[in-house]
């Protein structure tokens, strides 16, 4: 914390008039919700501060016919485009991939596509297996019971038994393959390549108070039906009933510490913009791989001049995005368009290292059913395949409802020069420095992307697709924010230990995607939540000597 004597004195006076909470959680998204729910059984006083608000599903875009148009403005996945009061700006000019997130109760689970793979066992042993990056200090088996618990609470649908993926036991049957899935599956069979119905967190049956999917529209940006699992309708109702306090419109500026180096609480701005101080015995950060380093770097003091929990110098470094290599085309047969959850199949054919491909590690593939008519019109005009003039409607009919997509989620290896810092000029509406992103795609990742695009083209051509288009990387594809406060046993090479406690501050924990050591080649949300549940379990088992 900045050492202004007057400000320090004022905070100390306020501490005397406010009772500290036992546990203070910053962020109410995927990981914050999971850790709050798990710790609730301890009956401690748990408070979560969230800078966004509770969402109203009646106001979601999918309640109206203009839902696609709203995706380009107030419901954009990018905070820089959205510009809601709850958002903070991000300087990502020095990155080919732009950050996308959402600030609300539920966080980015409000916006995600509900695609639901797990990291593979090999992802935790990358150094051992492939001689790159670092091994995690925990393995897949340590997280298995928490994956299973999370799948039950979030409510997953899928088909158990995929031979190339970790074994899962979804409580609901898989999404229908639909028109698109059948076309893709036949093409993959001709090529002799692996495919499997995707696990998702979209309900295929009525489940725990959630109605089944009725295909209101694309799962992004939000599901008015409540069929898509987001933590505001899964974890948070249970956590609040168990006694967790959730305070919205609270933007945390910094975490404070005392002369012994222990966290004492947070300074935040309330819904009226008034600066407040909330003392706490334990602080848990759950602000994602950009928000967490931003907060830690802004929490400077005489004892922590380079930011909180940053003796390693690694806070904000090793940012991993997952570069997405996307290729799509158009078939004569009708496809599903937006009449179903967007991902129907996945493939792990190229997931693990095969050095004959010219790169280490690999990528997962998600097949996309199609696109809605507004999106199709806008993007096809940009790509130059939808002309203006007399031929416009004929070509649009050929494209609309005939798209097939292939997206490769390419593993991003950690590199220290890919990082989050504090911008020296840009600030949010409360004067807090905005995060600045510096990120480049590695040569290894570029080779991986090229390989994926070549395989995608083979699949699409086998399916009879024409007018093939490429986005590589997807520019607005920074959904996965990982690695900027990595986990490890060596305080010189990591920010948190093997159970999420920061090496430098014994009562400060991190539970979000920033603690990832490697990124894998799959969407990370299920693993983020399993890690949060694991860390909460470790905290409960160590309560008697938590700060030793």
UniProtKB/TrEMBL annotation:
Keywords, ordered alphabetically: FAD, Flavoprotein, Oxidoreductase
Glucose-methanol-choline oxidoreductase N-terminal domain location: 22-323
UniProt domain Glucose-methanol-choline oxidoreductase C-terminal: residue ranges: 414-532
InterPro entries the record matches: FAD/NAD-bd_sf, GMC_OxRdtase_N, GMC_OxRtase_C
Domain of life: Bacteria
Pfam families reported in the protein's UniProt record: GMC_oxred_C (PF05199), GMC_oxred_N (PF00732)
Molecular function GO terms recorded: flavin adenine dinucleotide binding; oxidoreductase activity, acting on CH-OH group of donors
Family, similarity comment: Belongs to the GMC oxidoreductase family.
Protein name as it appears in the record: GMC family oxidoreductase
Lineage summary: Bacteria, Pseudomonadati, Pseudomonadota, Alphaproteobacteria, Hyphomicrobiales
């Amino acid at each position: 914390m900045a050492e202004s004597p007057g400000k320090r004195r004022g905070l100390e006076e306020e501490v005397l008039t406010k009772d500290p909470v036992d546990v203070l959680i910053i962020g109410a998204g995927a990981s914050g919700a999971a850790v709050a729910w798990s710790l609730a059984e301890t009956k401690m006083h748990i408070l979560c501060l969230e800078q966004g608000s509770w969402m109203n599903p009646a106001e979601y875009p999918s309640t109206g016919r203009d839902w696609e148009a709203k995706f380009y403005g107030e419901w954009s996945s990018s905070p820089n485009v959205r510009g809601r009061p709850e958002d903070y700006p991000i300087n990502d000019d020095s990155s080919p991939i732009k950050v996308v997130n959402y600030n609300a109760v539920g966080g980015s689970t409000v916006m995600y596509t509900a695609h639901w793979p797990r990291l593979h066992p090999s992802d935790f042993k990358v150094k051992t297996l492939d001689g790159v990056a670092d091994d995690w200090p925990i393995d897949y088996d340590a997280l298995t019971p928490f994956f299973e618990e999370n799948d039950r609470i979030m409510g997953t649908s899928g088909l158990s038994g995929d031979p190339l993926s970790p074994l899962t036991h979804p409580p609901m049957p898989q999404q229908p393959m639909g028109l698109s899935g059948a076309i893709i599956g036949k093409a993959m069979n001709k090529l002799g390549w692996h495919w499997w119905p995707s696990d998702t967190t979209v309900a295929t049956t009525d489940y725990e108070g959630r109605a089944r999917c009725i295909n209101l529209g694309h799962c992004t940006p939000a599901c008015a039906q409540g069929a898509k699992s987001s933590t505001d309708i899964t974890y948070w109702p249970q956590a609040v009933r168990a006694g967790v306090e959730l305070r919205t419109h609270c933007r945390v500026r910094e975490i404070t510490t005392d002369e012994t180096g222990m966290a004492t609480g947070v300074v935040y701005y309330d819904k009226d913009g008034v600066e407040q101080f909330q003392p706490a015995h334990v602080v848990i950060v759950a602000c994602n791989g950009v928000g967490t380093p931003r907060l830690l770097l802004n929490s400077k003091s005489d004892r922590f001049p380079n930011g909180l929990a940053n003796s390693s110098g690694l806070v904000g470094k090793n940012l991993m995005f997952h570069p997405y290599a996307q290729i799509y085309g158009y078939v004569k047969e009708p496809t599903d368009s937006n009449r179903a959850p967007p991902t129907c199949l996945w493939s792990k054919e190229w997931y693990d290292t095969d050095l004959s491909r010219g790169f280490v590690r690999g990528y997962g593939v998600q097949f996309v059913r199609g696109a809605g008519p507004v999106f199709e019109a806008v993007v096809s005009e940009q790509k130059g395949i939808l002309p203006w003039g007399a031929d416009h409607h004929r070509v649009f009919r050929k494209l609309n409802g005939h798209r097939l997509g292939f997206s490769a989620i390419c593993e991003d290896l950690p590199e220290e020069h890919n990082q989050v810092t504090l911008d020296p000029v840009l600030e949010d509406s409360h004067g807090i420095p905005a995060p600045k992103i510096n990120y480049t795609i590695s040569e290894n990742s570029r080779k991986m992307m090229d390989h994926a695009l070549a395989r995608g083209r083979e699949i699409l051509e086998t399916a009879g697709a024409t007018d093939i288009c490429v986005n590589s990387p997807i520019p607005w594809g920074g959904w996965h924010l990982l690695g900027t406060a990595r986990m490890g046993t060596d305080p010189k090479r990591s920010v948190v230990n093997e159970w999420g406690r920061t090496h430098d501050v014994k009562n400060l924990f991190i539970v979000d995607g920033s603690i990832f050591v490697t990124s894998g080649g799959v969407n990370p949300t299920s693993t983020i939540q399993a890690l949060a549940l694991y860390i909460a379990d470790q905290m409960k088992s160590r309560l008697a000597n938590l700060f030793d």
